[in-house]
Specification:
By secondary structure, this protein is an alpha/beta fold. The protein has a single domain, classed as Rossmann fold (3-Layer(aba) Sandwich). 46% of the residues lie in helices and 13% in strands. It is built from eight helices and seven strands. It has helices spanning 22-34, 51-66, 68-73, 84-88, 114-129, 151-165, 180-202, 225-241; strands spanning 13-17, 37-44, 74-81, 133-135, 170-172, 214-215, 218-219. A five-stranded parallel β-sheet has the order 3-2-1-4-5, with helices on both faces. A two-stranded antiparallel sheet has the order 6-7. Residues 1-10 have low confidence and may be disordered.
């Protein structure tokens, strides 16, 4: 089952699903604090906010420069090309369309099966490279209602991956039960103001891929669901710091 931060132990080899966004960057720092060897994996699925992939390099460079102990643990970075995702889905994450909400309450930014595919491909790579721990930034607290972000989904997926590959992978979701304000607080706990600044200035989370304006909470359009969650969370975090 996904393991909360308070239950993890040192040692081990991990693979972090690293998009270049806020949540995955905090998860990467979380993993670097806990595991002796950490690799990263990103996915090019022709996402509308593909600029996040361009942010991955600067984030990794920033972490290496600011945190020498983490730099020694940070291993190879991998990017997989997944053009099949937009071929089988029509969403506001992969098409130029207005972000709306469907009758079931889900925003049309939901890409069916995306996180299931991400973890499956990550597990296949981890199998080859001897990495036991798989870390993702899924969250069931402040999120858009995506069913593949739910704790039950990922518990079931861990069982499936272990049975299907005859391995003992452990899926970690350190943000599962915390909100965006607490995610900012976790970043500060892990790496102080330096990590908070890296998250603000180098990551990208906006669904529209807008990187023209640096807000207090980071770059973004300021109006899409991802920006709104990040903006509100940062305001609550900042208020608690005063």
């Amino acid at each position: 089952m996904p393991v909360p931060a308070t239950e993890t132990s040192g040692g081990g080899r991990a693979l972090v699903l690293f998009s270049g966004g806020q949540d995955s960057t905090v998860c990467l720092a979380w993993a670097l604090e806990r595991f002796e060897h950490v690799e990263t994996i990103g996915f090019d699925y022709r996402q509308r906010h593909k600029v996040e992939l361009d942010c991955r390099g600067p984030v990794l460079e920033g972490l290496r420069a600011a945190f020498p102990a983490w730099a020694q643990r940070l291993g190879a970075d991998h990017v997989l090309d997944l053009p099949v995702i937009p071929a089988i889905s029509e969403t506001a994450m992969t098409q130029d369309m207005t972000i709306t909400f469907a009758a079931n309450g889900l925003p049309n930014t939901f890409v069916p099966g995306r996180n299931l595919l991400f973890f499956t491909f990550a597990a296949a790579l981890a199998y080859r490279r001897g990495l036991k721990h798989l870390v993702g930034g899924m969250c069931e607290t402040d999120y858009s209602g995506y069913p593949d972000c739910r704790d039950d989904t990922l518990k079931a997926l861990q069982v499936t991956l272990n049975l299907g590959m005859d391995q003992r992978f452990v899926l970690h979701t350190p943000l599962m039960w915390i909100d965006k304000a607490t995610t900012w607080a976790l970043a500060k706990e892990l790496g102080g103001d330096m990590l908070v600044d890296i998250v603000r200035e180098r990551t990208h989370t906006c669904y529209l891929g807008d990187r023209t304006t640096l807000h207090d909470w980071g770059y973004g359009c300021g109006t899409c669901p991802a920006c709104d969650l990040r903006k509100v969370g940062y305001a609550r975090f900042f208020e608690h710091q005063r």
